[in-house]
Design goal:
Length: 311
């Protein structure tokens, strides 16, 4: 599957993706923000919880509209802004739920699926901020999603890197605990020994587990086009660079920009996040041999129909 050229992002006003943020693991009993705000109690309570995703709205023949009373506020706002997005949601939500619930006998596959679950939560977060017209936040979160997707695809295609991936996580875990004010010295020392921190830190040095820069990771995963365009723009937003406030008009630079222009990033983030997740699912299904081929074909077909990727 060819990765989308970011010049196509945000060019279609009628086909947009937004997924219900309520797809949480019922086993953890986590409360999603939308349900908490609406006074609902907990995930898994059929009497009070929203359907797992927009797929259920379609499957149950419930008409989505801005007059519905039992859907989250952010979802109603997205429906108003992107009337046709439910078509995308039904497709991406269908495969998303299946991947999220998948379990394998392979540690490598399970770790990669866990990364897909994190990406799913990132996707939901992006759509929550987009609903309230926070374009800069949506674009910044897309940068995180890009790095997550690129890293996961690299791990999928390089299973021998699994131990490095896990070991690097131990390094970060120790450093987080070490920097915590009031950390117990005995516990910290025991944790350091258990994590084999000194040896792992020496092994990794200043490198990440994959040993690449983000650019190198994007190149290795076939995501160079997105890196060269949208990722750089999103990084400038995340880093607070002057780019986001500079303007250029009539041969002169301006030091301020109309905040309303930032709303355009909502449209870009919607298309980007859909494509990033589709790319992740495509690689996951075919490289990990997940039994969801027909589902991922439906996703790719939808991307082609929307003009986000080429055949």
């Amino acid at each position: 599957m060819d990765v989308m050229d970011s010049s196509r992002l945000g060019s279609r006003g009628n086909a947009r993706l937004a997924l219900d943020a309520c797809l949480y693991d019922t086993g953890t009993r986590r409360i999603c923000p939308a349900c908490l705000k609406s006074g609902l109690r907990r995930v898994g309570d059929p009497a009070t919880h929203f359907p797992v995703s927009l797929v259920h709205w379609k499957v149950n023949n419930i008409r989505m509209s801005n007059t519905a009373t039992n859907i989250p506020e952010y979802l109603r706002l997205l429906i108003d802004r992107y009337p046709d997005f439910s078509k995308d949601a039904a497709i991406i939500g269908n495969i998303g739920m299946k991947v999220n619930r998948y379990h394998s006998d392979s540690d490598h596959t399970n770790v990669c699926v866990n990364q897909c679950r994190i990406a799913w939560e990132m996707l939901n977060s992006i759509h929550c901020v987009i609903a309230y017209d926070y374009g800069l936040a949506g674009a910044s979160l897309c940068r995180n999603l890009f790095e997550l997707v690129a890293g996961t695809i690299f791990l999928i295609e390089n299973p021998t890197k699994l131990q490095d991936f896990i070991d690097y996580g131990k390094v970060v875990a120790y450093e987080v605990i070490e920097s915590t004010p009031g950390a117990d010295h005995k516990y910290l020392q025991a944790f350091k020994t258990k994590a084999d921190y000194d040896n792992l830190k020496k092994r990794f040095g200043r490198d990440k587990w994959h040993g690449k820069t983000i650019k190198g990771l994007a190149d290795a995963c076939g995501m160079k086009k997105l890196y060269d365009s949208f990722y750089k723009e999103a990084s400038a937003i995340a880093h607070g660079d002057a780019f986001i406030t500079l303007s250029y008009k009539d041969g002169a630079w301006g030091l301020a920009r109309d905040v309303r222009s930032w709303s355009n990033y909502c449209d870009i983030a919607v298309d980007f996040s859909f494509t990033a997740m589709a790319t992740l699912y495509h690689r996951s299904v075919y490289k990990l041999n997940l039994p969801f081929v027909s589902d991922v074909r439906a996703v790719v077909g939808r991307l082609i129909q929307k003009g986000l990727i080429e055949k």
